[in-house]
Amino acid sequence: MRLPQIFYNLHKRLQKMFDKSNEGGEGVTPSIQDIAGRLAEEQQRLRQLEATTVPKERTLLVLGSKCVGKTTAINKFFDREEHATRPTLALEYSFGRRIGIGKSPQVMNVWELGSLDNAEQLLEVPMRTHGLQQLAVFIMLDLSQPQRFWTDLECAFKGLRDTAQQMMQNSTPDLREILEQRSLERVGQQSKEDLGNLEPLPFPVVIVGGKYDVFAGFDPAIKKHTCRCLRSMAHLIGGALLFYSQRMPKLAKVLRDTISHMGFGSPAHPFRSHVADFNEPLCIWFGTDSWSKIGDTGTQSVERIGATFGVEVPQLQLEKQKLPETPDPSKDPGFRESLIDEMRSQKNEELAGIMRDVLLRGKFESVQN
């Protein structure tokens, strides 16, 4: 049972209690002690119900474009301030804990995938470790580079889809039925006419368009085609779509609320509004879009979405993204560890001494010969 429904039922029960109290006559009113006692009983029931219905542990997987702000978004959610955010090399784990109404702790596992290059095995780690039942995924894309992000989006989707399919094949029929039913619920009533033409994943996916502050100044034609592409992809996989910028507090708050909703179940509905205008930051919840609303393109597939977007916004070939890299990671200030650095410095001195001895020995032997 969902919490909004629980509160509604609580309201109805209280209303019935007061109606029953007034059945004996107009002058009969419940005392303050009676009201307090009944409220305490209902609150106890609510706590017991929440303890049995709210998951104790959920898992979030964050992946997508490089340097789009994945680590920053996670750190901001956990209120962690870092002077120099270090690059995510492979797969990093963190967690958060919250005490619910029933005093039972809720745990949110957060996995961040640093790069999508050859990441098939890394993708399996959080999905197989915690399972699909309480998993939610955030795919963050760099809107400031619309000529590049399609490769990241397609790679992320196919990796998630392939791993999920393998796990679904090995899961029990009951679990498969539960996950499929949840997928149908996320698609919603408004998208039922498109149901046969969708490829929903067995867990909620939120596509996050990052760096919207830069994207907002782009040519309207590019914004229109980019928004249509992302809306089509989100609708195809039964996901939600959100534009985000850490420099825009309103958008940053929506992403923060969405992470909290996926990880802890509150707030109940993090998207305060529905925005589908390409001139505004998009904000489209699960099951609230459709092919007819997106445009006159008709039913889409991943291949068709990519081909259409590639014609409208030509994609650059990613040789290997030429991002500035530190030649020696040990000299990167983002990876400083005092104890390890001291040991490494000591080993470097020992190695330098050995090299000097070898050179001296070589010179000495050459003179003797």
UniProtKB/TrEMBL annotation:
Location(s) in or outside the cell: Cytoplasm, Cytoskeleton, Cilium axoneme; Cytoplasm, Cytoskeleton, Cilium basal body; Cytoplasm, Cytoskeleton, Microtubule organizing center, Centrosome
Q: Which SUPFAM superfamilies match?
A: P-loop containing nucleoside triphosphate hydrolases (SSF52540)
Keyword annotations from UniProtKB, A to Z: Cell projection, Cilium, Cilium biogenesis/degradation, Cytoplasm, Cytoskeleton, Developmental protein, Dynein, Microtubule, Motor protein
Any one cellular component term from GO for this entry?
Answer: microtubule
Which Pfam family, any one, appears in the UniProt record? DLIC
Q: Which GO terms describe its biological process?
A: intraciliary retrograde transport; intraciliary transport involved in cilium assembly
List the GO molecular function terms: dynein heavy chain binding
Where is it chiefly localized? cytoplasm
The answer to whether keyword Cytoplasm applies is yes
- Chain segments annotated as transmembrane: none
Regarding protein family, the annotation reads: Belongs to the dynein light intermediate chain family.
Q: What PANTHER family is this protein classified in?
A: CYTOPLASMIC DYNEIN 2 LIGHT INTERMEDIATE CHAIN 1, DYNEIN 2 LIGHT INTERMEDIATE CHAIN, ISOFORM 2
Q: What is this protein called?
A: Cytoplasmic dynein 2 light intermediate chain 1
Question: From which lineage does this chain's organism come?
Answer: Eukaryota, Metazoa, Ecdysozoa, Arthropoda, Hexapoda
